[in-house]
Specification:
Layout lengths: L7 H4 L2 H9 L76 E6 L14 H7 L7 E3 L5 E3 L2 E6 L5 E6 L13 H12 L14 E8 L2 E6 L33 E7 L3 E6 L13 E6 L3 H10 L4 E2 L4 H7 L4 E6 L2 E7 L9 H10 L2 H9 L4 E2 L25 H10 L7 E7 L3 H15 L4 E7 L1 H9 L6 E7 L5 H5 L15 H12 L3 H17 L4 E5 L1 E6 L3 E2 L15 E2 L2
Length: 568
């Protein structure tokens, strides 16, 4: 967004050094010095993976989205909300204590932070684990386990200085060995299998001294710093991470019961002074939208995110109902490798058949942002509006014309797999089915258990079409990465040689204007090829008990319970 390069003299200043690599990013924090003990950014910051990296959410690690100018968009509307003030905690002792129950829509897919796939899992693990850096509620990237870092002039060496006094939940101090182990694990340097794809660029992790770790990468990448949010875990604990998760976050793991939920307890040794306020937090699986609504109204759960418009309307009289941008891209995903969806004309016909405005109005109360490709509109330097390509309302005649040209004048049958736990997506499916029938496509909905959807659809690609969401980590390349031919996340089986070539160029570019142009080209290819039927970036509507305050919306998919407190 701003200039990428500064004078050589400036590079000797940490703030300017960081700017070299990161001012190119709308969505990324530009760090010059990291965070102070309250967790607030102290440098010259400009604001900044799935619901499974995919989420099934209604509003999707991959599912749910947000940002403007060089910063994340902070707008949220609602009544009675306030934020906890860690600095004032001595004068507000009554803010401490108590328990809160958070309703969640899906089960945990893994308690190992390096292997968790679902956004709904990662939003919980955010409270247990921290990386060298972490995002804050304003979209800034702040330091966590690290207290500072620098980047070499060529962008190939990252040097992290560890924060004093950070302890794991088992009481052990975090050491450079723990950081080295964690980074080598996610990079695949231990066994040849990278657990986080962006980290496979790491070539070496070296301990300089007991407080300093140096990371060498194979190529400069202005977006890589965000990947250092990867959790720091005790050295050698990888095999046990899924059974006995130990992190450095504000809450520690207590217990987990499949299909029921996960319980956390306050970390009394948390490095951020004054946090957290609550003694315990339970994330409870609600099972269905109707159950969630009843539990909210009955007071057995205190907080529930990703409401449909009908749920929000029903709760406005009794709860704080807050609307904020999400980082989720919702779509009718199409399996490009399966007949007849392997015909671009058929996929284009489906795009013409959709009335996205009707979906947004019916399911999201008109609060969503309509899109036609994989990029958050709030990443405005990188986003290109392609809604005119197929229109935002249905063009039935054009859709029928394309189907006839492809040899499907009489239409065809199409099964749409949807994770049933997400009412937002299920309601979207009901609208889409009727719209497709108008052009002769006999669409039906197959509701699926979340774990089955992950195994068969997201990981197994055993489907024709599915409605879900994918989340973005606020770097412009994150969503577009998954549509590379050889991406492990390419569950729509999109294949385009030109796309692959341009994506590599975008990653290698250190010039912000050039990078933005490449990303816009990628969006155009994905749109022209109708790789998938993108619908909207839904708004995140969240219901919160009136007995709570301090909840903060983030521009990424997390539920930060560290600042929440009870006011009655």
């Amino acid at each position: 967004m701003k200039k990428d390069f500064h004078s050589k003299k400036d590079f000797h200043s940490k703030k300017k050094l960081c700017s070299f690599l990161f001012t190119a990013l709308l969505a990324m924090a530009v760090l010059g010095g990291c965070a102070d003990s309250t967790g607030e950014s102290s440098g010259d910051n400009s604001s900044m993976e799935s619901q499974a990296d995919s989420q099934g959410t209604g509003s999707g690690q991959e599912s749910g989205g947000t940002e403007e100018d060089s910063s994340a968009e902070e707008s949220a509307s609602g009544e009675g909300m306030s934020e906890a003030d860690p600095a004032g905690q001595d004068a507000a002792g009554d803010m401490y204590g108590g328990s809160v129950v958070v309703g969640i829509q899906q089960d945990i897919d893994s308690l190992d932070p390096h292997k968790a796939t679902a956004a709904g899992t990662k939003e919980i693990l955010f409270n247990i684990f921290e990386g060298l850096v972490k995002p804050d509620e304003n979209g800034n990237l702040i330091c966590a386990v690290a207290e500072d870092y620098t980047i070499s002039e060529d962008g190939l060496v990252y040097t992290f200085t560890l924060r004093d006094g950070v302890k794991f939940h088992n009481g052990n101090a975090v050491t450079a060995e723990d950081v080295k182990y964690s980074l080598e694990r996610v990079a695949g340097l231990l066994d040849g299998t990278p657990l986080i794809s962006t980290m496979k660029t790491i070539q070496a992790v070296d301990i300089i001294d007991e407080k300093t770790v140096q990371v060498t990468v194979d190529s400069a990448n202005t977006e890589l710093i965000y990947s250092f949010v990867a959790a720091v875990i005790p050295s050698g604990s990888g095999e046990d991470a899924g059974a006995d998760p130990i992190g450095t976050g504000p809450f520690s793991f207590v217990s987990y019961k499949p299909q029921e939920g996960i319980s956390l307890a306050k970390n009394p040794d948390y490095w951020q002074t004054g946090l957290p306020y609550l003694d315990s937090v339970e994330f409870r699986i609600t099972g269905s939208a109707d159950t969630a609504l009843m539990e909210l109204q009955g007071g057995t759960i205190d907080l529930y995110a990703y409401l449909t418009d009908s749920q929000a309307q029903a709760l406005k009289g009794s709860h704080q109902v807050i609307t904020a941008p999400s980082n989720v891209v919702q779509a009718l995903f199409l399996n490009n490798a399966l007949e007849p969806l392997n015909d671009v004309r058929v996929r284009q016909a489906i795009l013409y058949a959709l009335d996205k405005e009707a979906v947004n109005d019916f399911v999201g109360g008109g609060n969503g942002t309509l899109i036609s490709s994989a990029m958050l509109p709030t990443l405005k330097d990188y986003y290109v509006d392609l809604n005119e390509a197929y229109g935002t309302t249905a063009n039935v005649e054009k859709a029928k014309e394309l189907l006839a040209d492809a040899g499907f004048a009489e239409g065809f049958d199409l099964e749409i797999a949807i994770p049933a736990v997400y009412e937002f997506h299920m309601q979207t499916g009901e609208v889409v089915v009727e719209q497709l029938k108008a052009v002769g496509i006999n669409a039906t909905i197959k509701g699926m258990e979340w774990s089955t959807w992950l195994d068969e659809v997201y990981n197994g690609c055993q489907y024709a079409a599915t409605i879900s969401g994918i989340t973005c980590d606020m770097t412009p390349g994150y969503l577009l990465n998954r549509f590379q031919t050889d991406s492990s996340k390419n569950f729509i089986n999109f294949t385009n040689a030109e796309y692959d070539e341009i994506y590599v160029k975008a990653q290698e570019s250190l010039d912000s204007a050039e990078k933005a142009d490449y990303y816009k080209q990628l969006q155009k290819i994905l749109c022209d090829e109708a790789g998938t039927a993108f619908i909207q970036v839904p708004a995140n509507m969240t219901a919160i008990s009136r007995r709570l305050a301090g909840y903060k919306f983030y521009p990424i998919y997390v539920q930060d319970m560290s600042t929440v407190y009870i006011i009655e």
